[in-house]
Amino acid sequence: MQVYLDNSSTTQPFPEVIEAVEECFRENYGNPSSLHRKGLEAEKIIKNSRRRIAETLGAADNELIFTSGGSEANNLALFGVINKYQRGNYLVTSQIEHPSVLHAFKRMEQQGYKVTYLPVDGTGKVNLDELQTCLNSHPALVSIMMANNEIGTIQPLEAIRAIIDAQKNKPLFHVDAVQAFGKLLFNVKKLNIDLLTISGHKFHGPKGIGALYLRKGIQLEPLIYGGGQETGHRSGTENVPGIAGMGVAAAQIMRNLNSNIHKLRQLKKHLTEFITRSIENIRVNSLDTEDFAPHILSVSFPGIKAEVLLHALEQDGIYVSTGAACSSRKQSPSHVLTAIGLNKDEIEGTIRCSFSIQNTEPEINYVSERLVHHVRELRRII
Predict the structure, then answer these.
(1) What stretch(es) of the chain map to CATH 3.90.1150.10?
(2) Rounded Cα–Cα distance for residues 159 and 145 (Å)
(3) Which residues of the chain have pLDDT under 50?
(4) What is the pLDDT of residue 110?
(5) pLDDT at 79
(6) Do residues 296 and 354 touch, judged by C-beta distance below 8 A?
(7) 8 A C-beta contact, residue 53 and residue 65
(8) Which residue, 79, 174, 206, 353, is most buried by CB atoms nearer than 10 A?
């Protein structure tokens, strides 16, 4: 049996997505900037996909900018507004953001900006009192992710927004929703978010395509200059196959979102209960509560090297991660696990299982049995 549980890294595209992408390569291959029929057909695909995705966010069509993925969308959001507005040199984010956000802020520090990295508690929640204190110094921008990519913590965005709205000089509010889209129900207008990022391959769409929601009235300084595509915010010929596939994936994943969320939570609960009942001395970093994303389960097995456990499971056809895919090959310990207070032994023994709606209960039964077997064997050997 083959069981893929690394869906926070990337997901298998839906069959309908593959079909839409293939059709663009076969038939609708025109440049959307061209004036002939082939160009107009490609332009129509972009327009339809933009409308589909915007609807799922609760946004208007003209508030969505296509990018090459979540990392570019995050960089465009952060550098774009900072370079455009020049509203001050103080910025706020959290300690457990995605590297595409953290590294952007580190770069801004090199350019002379002051950045506060909000601490988090043992569950990964940002400290709201610290945020309140930071806002008293009037930051230009606050960037907080919706759901953490390593442990799944869902941040209290409504409470954060309320604290921001109480300020006389409100900072712009950016949200990385790459892990949240398709797994959580939210509306950008109700949350009053200024900028929000998503990535196609996290919800069964193609790789190499993402989007930035940009609230009407907010302006950006482009990162890429050229032909002025995407209303001048992101030049370059659009990735029509990727955009087509992303539009299909967004519509598909949102069609039965509530039942999908329920299924993901049941799979997570099933695996969590089995391993906590069967294995001693473990730490579950992703609780089975509404405060955590339904598709992410991070567990620490002290005394075991996560990489060894990963490859043992791989021999059984089970694919998991030792952390975020973007940083799992690095030698430094996870900044997320460090921030929530794990010790070195716990960090080195942490794996992440991330589910999709394509997973089944029999698969989780198989994973449960093999995981328990390998943990016991590795501990016995060590």
Answers:
(1) 3-11+257-381
(2) 14
(3) 325, 327-328
(4) 96
(5) 96
(6) yes
(7) no
(8) 353
Q: Which residues are catalytic?
A: 326
Q: How many CB atoms lie within 10 A of CB 256?
A: 12
The pTM of this model reads: 0.95
Query: Which string of DSSP letters, residue by residue, matches 54-115?
Result: HHHHT--GGGEEEESSHHHHHHHHHHHHHHHH---SEEEEETT--HHHHHHHHHHHHTT-EE
Range 3-11+257-381: architecture per CATH: Alpha-Beta Complex (3.90)
Q: Which fold has domain 15-255?
A: Aspartate Aminotransferase; domain 2 (3.40.640)
Q: What residue has token string 């090459």?
A: 68
Retrieve residue 252's tokens: 């598909």
Contact 349, 304 (CB under 8 A): yes
Residue type, 356: S
> Where are the CATH 3.40.640.10 domain residues in the chain?
15-255
At 320-340, the pLDDT tens digits run: 999 654 544 556 899 999 999
Pick from 313, 368, 99, 125: which is nearest to 322 by CA? 313
What is the distance between the terminal CA atoms of the chain, rounded to a whole angstrom?
28
Q: Is the dihedral of CA 233, 236, 237, 239 positive or negative?
A: negative
Reduced to 3 states, what is the DSSP secondary structure of residue 353?
A: strand
